[in-house]
């Protein structure tokens, strides 16, 4: 498990150091990124409890240290074919406002500084 955000830092200073920084991850042969300020941790794939009647890309929930977190397979959300999970498959736990969400990705790569002009939204 890798913790990305360290607590105790001044919020304004932390936001400045995280500006234009993205955690990059792979889905098949494509690379994507998510703003590092939203990432709380990265964990290996684990048992996911299925919940009936969810959209196909919502795989269910996990219990992470007593906190229930819904988990989405980003591959399915982006309409890519389902692939068997491997030892490189990760769950990126993100916090956006009051919502925590686990994002299943094929693998995590690195944190990069990317200028806003170089960012291309997913097709």
Structural class: mainly beta
* Multimeric state: single chain
Output the CATH topology: OB fold (Dihydrolipoamide Acetyltransferase, E2P)
Q: Give a count of the beta strands, DSSP E runs of length 2 or more.
A: 9
What CATH architecture label applies? Answer: Beta Barrel
Domain CheW-like: 19-123
Organism: Cohnella rhizosphaerae
InterPro entries: CheW, CheW-like_dom_sf, CheW-lke_dom
Protein name: Chemotaxis protein CheW
Please sum up the structure shown.
It is built from two helices and nine strands, in the order βαβββββαβββ.
Structure write-up:
- Residues 19-123 form the CheW-like domain.
- It holds the Pfam family CheW.
- One of its GO terms (cellular component) is cytosol.
- This is Chemotaxis protein CheW.
- It comes from Cohnella rhizosphaerae.
- With 123 residues, the protein is mainly beta.
- The protein has one domain (12-115): Beta Barrel (OB fold (Dihydrolipoamide Acetyltransferase, E2P)), CATH 2.40.50.
- 10% of the residues lie in helices and 46% in strands.
- It has two helices and nine strands.
- The strands form two sheets. A six-stranded mixed sheet has the order 1-4-7-8-6-5. The protein has a three-stranded antiparallel sheet with strand order 3-2-9, with no helix packed on it.
- A hairpin with a 2-residue loop joins strand 2 and strand 3.
- The longest helix has 8 residues, at 11-18.
């Amino acid at each position: 498990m890798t913790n990305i955000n360290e607590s105790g830092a001044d919020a304004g200073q932390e936001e400045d150091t995280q500006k234009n920084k993205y955690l990059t991850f792979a889905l098949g042969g494509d690379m994507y990124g998510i703003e590092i300020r939203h990432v709380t941790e990265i964990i290996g794939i684990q048992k996911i409890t299925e919940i009936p009647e969810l959209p196909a890309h919502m795989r269910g929930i996990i219990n992470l240290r007593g906190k229930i977190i819904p988990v989405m397979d980003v591959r399915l959300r982006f309409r890519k074919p389902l692939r068997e999970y491997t030892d490189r498959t990760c769950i990126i736990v993100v916090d956006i406002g009051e919502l925590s969400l686990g994002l299943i990705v094929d693998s995590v790569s690195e944190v990069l500084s990317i200028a806003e002009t170089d960012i291309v939204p997913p097709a």
